Structure formats: structure tokens, C-alpha cells
Amino acid sequence: xxxxxxxxxxxxxxxxxxxxxxxxxxxxxxxxxxxxxxxxxxxxxxxxxxxxxxxxxxxxxxxxxxxxxxxxxxxxxxxxxxxxxxxxxxxxxxxxxxxxxxxxxxxxxxxxxxxxxxxxxxxxxxxxxxxxxxxxxxxxxxxxxxxxxxxxxxxxxxxxxxxxxxxxxxxxxxxxxxxxxxxxxxxxxxxxxxxxxxxxxxxxxxxxxxxxxxxxxxxxxxxxxxxxxxxxxxxxxxxxxxxxxxxxxxxxxxxxxxxxxxxxxxxxxxxxxxxxxxxxxxxxxxxxxxxxxxxxxxxxxxxxxxxxxxxx
Length: 312
Known about the structure:
The longest helix has 24 residues. A six-stranded parallel sheet has the order 3-2-4-1-5-6, sandwiched between helices. By secondary structure, it is of the alpha/beta class. The protein has two domains: 239 residues, 3-Layer(aba) Sandwich (Rossmann fold), CATH 3.40.50.300; 63 residues, Orthogonal Bundle (Histone, subunit A), CATH 1.10.20.140. Helix content is 57%, strand content 10%. It contains 14 helices and six strands. The chain is globular.
């Protein structure tokens, strides 16, 4: 099987910086597993790698769709698999980096073959949740599919709608579809490195990054996106930070309050990521600062073993 290295962790854990270092050491190219950095024009608010960083190390899976377009785990899996095959064919190493747990699970363990979307039902559920709130949608999900409700946060409108859609359209709860699939596929020989920082560390880094984003021109970037005609309801503008900054642009929040709201929303997001990743198997956890040398040695040994096997 093709060997790949995966680097996962919650937002603001330091994945991007470490990934650049590792890629330079092992002759790697980065495959993004970030559901926000796929959107063109949303650069500052998604902490997208800079042009200089992308010049240093090739990146795949960044800037692939417009903010108005939907993108899901199935599309990610197909695109990432194609990128990994191309990277491997050129004798390079694929370094999959990101914090979108579903994307990583789909790539490494397969994708549950739940039914395709039912647009009319999905739209109706979306309108209902928009009117009544995500908490009401989550309560409805708890009644329909308790197992799914325990895994989906009460603010995660997209996943709540999808779980309701599957259960209502098929009569079979999404959790049963997932249990029967088992996520047992193994298309890659993967070394999965998780970055573990304490909650206070993550919280402080999130606050510092939110301030830095605003200083770098987050609001100006968002003004430009809206001026291009991107609707405020576009999927890309649902990413953490964008609704809060939109409220600032519209005069519903002052800048300081918008930053505070962004920090709070990002911290909740990071908590959900940590919860998800704790359930994932075969993750080797390291602190990205204290264990930096150990991470590099572990990755190098993994890649060297593969090279030795192919050369035998």
C-alpha cells in the first residue's frame, strides 16, 4: 500500500508550521484536509498557507471551489486520492494535513455509503433550523437518531440537517448506516500524528490568531468577497469567524465584540475537533513544541522503512 503521513489536530495547534518543516525534510507535498481552505478568496479568515509557503512546498486541495459551492467528504476523498497517487508516482511523499475529522476518516477508513442528498428535504430542514434554531434541530435529531445526536454538536447545523435528512428520507438512522459500514477500509499505510496541546494553550493561540487576522485585513477581505456578489448565506461564509465578521460589517457587532465572538466560536470548534480526534484509532499523539524532534524522527523512520522496502 502507498505510505502517507497524516498530521491532525484542532485549529491553532500548529499543524501548518510543522507540516512545512516535515515536508522539507522528507521530500513531501502537502494535501490539505481542511474544509475551509478549499474556498477561493477566503484566505485570511481560514489561515490559508501564504503564497510564499506554497512556493516552498507544493500544496494540494487549496483554492478548489468558490465560496458559493458546496464541497463534501466524498469530493474531498476523490480529489485527495488523485493528489496522493500523483505525488507517489513522482517519488514524493504525501503529507495529509488538516483538522476536518470527517475528511481524514473518509480518506483513511472509507466513506459510509449513505443515500445521496434529497435537495427539497434538505432545503426544508435548513429553513426550519434557521427559523427555530440549531438547538431545536438537535432535539429533533435526538428523538430520531439518539446515537447520531450524541456525536453531533448542538450548534453543528450542517451535520444536524444531514443526519435528519438521511433518517427521514430512508427510515434508517444515519448512525445505523455508519455502524454497518464500520469504516474498516484501509486504502493506505498511514502514519497518523496528532498534535496535542493543552486547552489553555489552544485558547491563547486562538485569541492571538483572531487578533492577527483582523490586523492582516480580515474585514477588508470579507468586504471584497461580498462586493464580488457572494451571498452572505454561501457555504464558505459559514466557516468560523465569517458570520461574526459579517455581523461587524453589517453594524450588528462592534469590532471588539466581533473578535470576542470569533474567539468564542473558534474555541467551541476546537473542542469539537478534540472530541472527534480522541475517538480516532491509531493516532500517535505528540506536543508540537516539546516533541518536535521526536515527531521528525518518527516520520523519517516511517518513510525510510518504506524506501528500504521498495529498494529491496
